[in-house]
Specification:
Blueprint: H1 3-26, H2 32-40, H3 46-53, E1 61-63, E2 83-90, E3 93-100, H4 111-127, E4 131-137, H5 157-168, E5 172-181, H6 186-189, E6 193-197, E7 202-204, H7 208-215, H8 221-225, H9 227-233, E8 239-241, H10 244-255, H11 281-284, H12 295-302, E9 308-310, E10 319-326, E11 329-336, E12 341-342, E13 348-349, E14 353-354, H13 356-372, E15 376-382, E16 384-385, H14 389-393, H15 396-408, E17 414-423, H16 424-429, E18 439-442, E19 447-449, H17 453-470, H18 477-495, H19 497-502, E20 508-509, H20 515-526
Parallel strand pairs: 3-4, 4-5, 5-6, 5-7, 6-8, 11-15, 14-16, 15-17, 17-18, 17-19, 18-20
Antiparallel strand pairs: 1-2, 2-3, 9-10, 10-11, 12-13
Helix pairs in contact: 4-5, 13-15, 17-18
Length: 542
Amino acid sequence: MDIEFNKNEDQNKQLLFQLKKKLDTVKLGGGKSRIEKEHEKGKLTARERIDYLTDADSHFLEIGALAADGMYAEEGGCPSAGVVTGIGYVKGRMCMIVANDATVKAGAWFPMTAKKNLRAQEIAMENRLPVIYLVDSAGVFLPKQNEIFPDKEHFGRQFRNNAKMSAMGIVQVAAIMGSCVAGGAYLPIMSDEALIVDKTGSIFLAGSYLVRAAIGENVDNETLGGATTHCEISGVTDNKYETDQDCLDAIRNIFDKIGQSEKAGFDRSEPKLPKLKPEDIYGTFPSDRVKPYDMLEIIKHLVDEGDFDEYKKDYGKTLLCGTARIDGWAVGIIANQRKIVKTKKGEMQMGGVIYSDSADKAARFIMNCNQRKIPLVFLQDVSGFMVGSKAEHGGIIKDGAKMVNAMANSVVPKFTIILGNSYGAGNYAMCGKAYDPRLIYSWPTAQMAVMSGASAAKTLLQIKVASLKKAGKEITPEDEAQLLKEITDKYNEELSPYYAAARLWVDGVIDPVETRKVISMGIEAANHSPITEKFNVGVIQT
């Protein structure tokens, strides 16, 4: 192995170490002392509940593990947004699991908690996956109520989704395993079946303190909304259980008897390993975001037996398009080629840039995949569309619009992996978050922004300097250098994949070796939802 391979491998493994360290911290939730307090009450933590509930040796694909990372510092932070969400298997059935983490601010809802919960429901609705809610929450975090309560995509939207999913025939089962207060009380009761753990579970619109303040009644929380009250007097909950484990066993029994769903019919053959070892990606993929590389080599580490049937191989070379299999599933791959290529006309084209010919090719390929019912996988390492008079005169906007149109109107499921750069309109054309990918994950090497850090910093510096000079301030070269450093540091922080993951612009940051598993589970989930919409691009930009 050459020096470059070893250098890449070392640097990429360092990034993976940082990722693992972050995830290990996140998985402790509110910390070891808070976990011990839950155990003292006879309760399992959110992650322990999921481990107990899901099938042994099955994979749990976490959604939004890094949500709220680095946010809400004044409130002491909110690891994983105080809720654990992901796709798992219960009695062999794939489902979405949403579990409040009571070790984080008693499971209170922060703005990012609402966003994450809605993302979990969105994935369940798109893929028609049954949902299991493990409820243990003190309700809305009141100091942030203005950012979580009244708007369309705020707290109340989850109950609207409960109702919509019920009407769609999507199974929802809820277990009240701790507090369930105020508006949050509607979530489990709008589910098909609501279970409750005796003594630790409680559900009411207003707790004992608020009841006393509002109507002067003195009543304890257990009498007000405990398991006995709601299973034997009000009939609000269906059955009560002695322990968390008993309650989770009951959910497993429910899922053991659920009928099979219709399938979309995506093609799958026997899974095969890639031709090149997936772990060799660490050495093949440059840790330096500027360096060119052959994306075809990366694809060979991801697809079964390295087989990639390329579409229009000799045309529009800055985008690779072709069909392959990932873990047995047939896929259509659109990937940015990162090496410099030469056209038949003798023109040199920069890697990572979308030109008119490549956009035109991709639009046609996306239409073909829709025609053949093949899920789409986008591998992003994109600097943007080509600029300049030659590109503009050649109709780059028209061809780019054609690609965006075909991609946006696709009815087959789309999956996006951000390997490296994800800049500007390139993010859009390559199925960024705004274009409804069923799942979107990034590698630790990813960077997402309107433009690269260097370009943005220089542009912002020019604007800042002009503004200061207009105000009559003299700027020395030293002042300018300091300003550039401050702007660059801030912008680079916002480029980070962790910044994106914290805000759920991506569903998570993954080890590149996990890419195959993410895509495979994503297509398996999508296969639960038959395609009912006709593919129609409307007015195509010819």
